[in-house]
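Changelog note: in this version the structure field was regenerated for every chain. One regenerated record is shown below for reference.
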Amino acid sequence: MDWAASGTTPWRTGLDEFGEPVPLLHVPLSLVQRPKECLEFADYTFARAFGRPIGSYPPRAVLWDYIKGRVEKAGVRGWVRFRTPVREIDYSGKNGKSR
């Protein structure tokens, strides 16, 4: 499993293998529905990622490459678990950690 593609969320939902409700996502368009300026990370611009300016509405494949590049740059992939339901998070102010 890897990072999910963005899509639109209809009113209908389904259940995953854990019995958790999830929206039935579909990706009917090949373009991102928001301008890149709304999606861009402040410390990792599209121009920096691709070495040149790109259009305001990039194809989904370009956005996918951008997000993968940002994840690799930050080194956070090992901290993410997919296909894992989260039901509760507690934060401890004593040690500054969540469990």
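Spot check on this record: Confidence is low (pLDDT under 50) at residues 5-11. Residues 20 and 86 are 10 Å apart (CA to CA).
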